[in-house]
Design goal:
By secondary structure, the protein is mostly helical. It has four helices and no strands.
Length: 118
């Protein structure tokens, strides 16, 4: 009797695992699709800084989380509102600011910048 209960528990756990994996896979596919749409929209602005930002974003975040996708939505709106400010969101611009700091961490060295708002 105990073997049957344990077997049913394992079978139920396997089913729940497969279903949750499938749901996460579906959500990730949707996030990838929306990221692609947003990046195309950003690239369509024809701003050199936006093109660099799109390239860096694709390289850094090929599989975006929900938080990164939300950041990208805000970023697209900010660039549309101020096209000249697109370059300040690139990793190169952020790295220049980090390199200009008068100190560095003795534990981590010089941090590397990533594209985006943060």
């Amino acid at each position: 009797m105990l073997q049957i209960i344990v077997g049913m528990f394992v079978a139920a756990w396997l089913v729940v695992s497969v279903v949750s994996w499938h749901d996460e896979s579906t959500l990730q596919t949707q996030r990838n699709t929306e990221q692609g749409r947003l990046l195309v929209e950003l690239e369509a602005t024809k701003i050199p800084g936006a093109s660099q930002l799109v390239d860096e974003w694709r390289k850094e975040y090929p599989q975006p989380s929900e938080q990164r996708l939300m950041e990208l939505r805000v970023l697209v709106e900010r660039v549309k509102a101020d096209p000249a400010g697109a370059e300040k969101y690139t990793a190169a611009a952020k790295q220049a600011k980090l390199d200009a700091l008068p100190f560095s961490s003795p534990f981590f060295g010089t941090p590397t910048a990533k594209p985006g708002i943060e």
